Amino acid sequence: MPPVNAPYRPEGLTARPLHARVDPDAVAHNLARLRKALPASGAAPRLWATVKADAYGHGVRRILPALRGADGLAVLHLDEARACRRMGWQGPVLVYGGLYSPADALLLDASGLHLVITHAAQLEWLAQAPLSQRPAVWLRYAGDIHHTGFAAQAYRAAYEAASAMSRRGLIGEVGHLNHYARADEPGGVDGADALFRDVIAGLPGPVSTSNSAALLKHGARAADTQWVRPGLALYGASPFADTSAAQLELRPAMSLHSQLVGIQRVPAGAGVGYGGAFTVQQAMDVGIVTCGYADGYPRHAPTGTPVIVDGVRTRLLGRVSMDMMAVDLGPVPHACIGAPVTLWGAGGLAVEEVAASAGTIAADLLTGLSARVPVQLADAH
Ligand SMILES: *Cc1c(COP(=O)(O)O)cnc(C)c1O
């Protein structure tokens, strides 16, 4: 019989031991850290805390108190902006996705909204809508990412249309927004910023260019703008392949925890998991962890992906299944059923490391945490 040491579960916790822990203090720490990355010459840029995708999976409601020190929130769409208002946020809200249809103008019913404008029809929709509030607008340059926004040759016409609307009192201030394709790469910002500066040369209005990577590695350029827009780094993950969050003095705001729920003695030659993707060379103890891809753990994480069992770093074995995964108990021979398991975000195991092993990025795992995983606040018991 495998050894069992399943802890007594206090009231209030769910039956399944898998849970995520979200630490609002870490978000507050990271916000302060990002402010410090901006050179203190002249007026420091204001900071939009990017909380799209429900605060990168952490839950806007949970972390909102930690963002009191932000100058504004940035979201994807207007429903999210209105939700922030309902949660009591009174500062400005920037909407990256802007308007998807003329009907969206009906959702412009709150003050302090800033809309990113990405094509000319959106200005028409605004001009024709009976607006009770005047949103500020930010014209997005297509930049080097070419997702949305105006090409260089269309930018000035868009600016003239928007500033005419602003003079007529239809909208508020007109700003200039760029988003880099390669801010995480060395030299990924300088050329792109120079091109953007050419496009907006001589045009009045505030400027915003920097996500987490640009802010952290190109502080001087970020400091030369009026607003920065970090997301990922607020949640304590590094945007860089070669610099860890710890090196950047960022603290992870989400950790994912579970327990061993089974131990199997697997004989030599036998397989572990679907498809027998891992074959046992010599008889070994395999631990079963209740966490799978339906929880948001990446199914493509291969054998060798780090996992912490009972405080000891070990590795995933074989294919991740919907509800569980197998781990190597070789380094933790004394582990019992009920032993604590950390999947990411604590014990020195960064979510970036798990993501890299699975061929993806931290933001993919954080935003992918599934709704079936209960979330505790770090200071709750
Ligand atoms: C998501 C997003 C950000 C934040 O990016 P991070 O890399 O997470 O810091 C900033 N600006 C725009 C336009 C975005 O879509």
TrEMBL record:
Post-translational modification N6-(pyridoxal phosphate)lysine, affected residues: 52
UniProt entry keywords in alphabetical sequence: Isomerase, Pyridoxal phosphate
One Pfam family matching this protein: Ala_racemase_N
SMART domains for the chain: Ala_racemase_C
Positions that bind substrate: 322
Leading EC class: isomerase
GO biological process, alphabetically ordered: D-alanine biosynthetic process
Gene Ontology MF annotations: alanine racemase activity; pyridoxal phosphate binding
Pathway listed: Amino-acid biosynthesis; D-alanine biosynthesis; D-alanine from L-alanine: step 1/1
Cellular component terms (Gene Ontology): cytosol
Alanine racemase C-terminal domain: residues covered: 253-378
Reactions mediated catalytically: L-alanine = D-alanine
Annotated catalytic residues: 52 (proton acceptor), 274 (proton acceptor)
EC numbers: 5.1.1.1
Necessary cofactors: pyridoxal 5'-phosphate
Record's function text: Catalyzes the interconversion of L-alanine and D-alanine. May also act on other amino acids.
NCBIfam families for this protein: alr
Family, as annotated: Belongs to the alanine racemase family.
Protein name: Alanine racemase
Origin species: Achromobacter arsenitoxydans SY8
